[in-house]
Amino acid sequence: MERLQKVIAAAGIASRRKAEQLIADGRVTVNGKTVTELGTKVGASDKIEVNGVRLEREEKVYYLLYKPRGVLSAASDDKGRKTVVDLFPEVEERLYPVGRLDFDTTGILLLTNDGDFAYLMTHPKFEIEKTYVARTKGIPTKEKLKQLERGIVLEDGKTAPAKAKLLSMDKKTDKGIVQLTIHEGKNRQVKRMFEAIGCPVQKLKRESFGFLDLHGLNAGDRRELTAHEVKQLRVLAETGKIR
Ligand code: URA
User: Fold this and answer.
1) Is residue 204 within 6 Å of ligand 1 at its C-beta?
2) Residues carrying an active site annotation
3) What is the tens place of the pLDDT at every residue in 109-164?
4) Among the atoms of ligand 1, which is closest to the Cα of residue 206?
5) Domain 129-209 in CATH 1.25.40.10
6) What is its EC number (predicted)?
7) Whether residue 207 has its Cβ less than 6 Å from ligand 1
8) Do domains 2-54 and 62-124+211-239 have the same CATH topology?
């Protein structure tokens, strides 16, 4: 027997948090009865419906995409813009992105239909490190880099300790190339952190996610994660290290 929200998330319909909300909102039935209690346990033979639609238990799939610029990190878009899921036309499972990269940000993005995995990868309490490389207008001083590392007060709270390193600079054009490693995922976090120190981001790429990087891929390329990588990512989220 498993918890209802876990089964819904595992079916790829929603993240664990969203699944909890669906239950609390009375949108889920088990064997025809509305269930609003989050702890409810269900078994393989129970008939679960979400918004009146029977839950199908799909095989889990996991992809790593080198997201190109000009593509939306969403499963669909009401304005008709191209989404990262559109880059997987032959995949039948209901894929969605794990977290988000901005429309103009490039780099590593995971996609899956496993809501439970997506929750582990994105919830800040699991502290998966993500490394970004930003081209900034203005060259951050050592003190500004320290500010990024100590935490920046944004309107939705202070950022957690980070690592920041100036990789190169061009004094003539007044631009810096800065590597920033964070383990949260607030909306537009990296850009807002650089804005706060007065060095706005002109170009942004996510180079790594946990131990995964873009090795061997060009923008627009993707590959399936191996079963071992998926397992290691879970271990990383759950224990903070990989064995
Ligand atoms: N931080 C940002 O500002 N943008 C992204 O796309 C990712 C992290």
Assistant:
1) yes
2) 102
3) 999 998 889 999 998 888 899 999 999 999 999 999 999 999 999 999 999 999 99
4) 7
5) no
6) 5.4.99.-
7) no
8) no
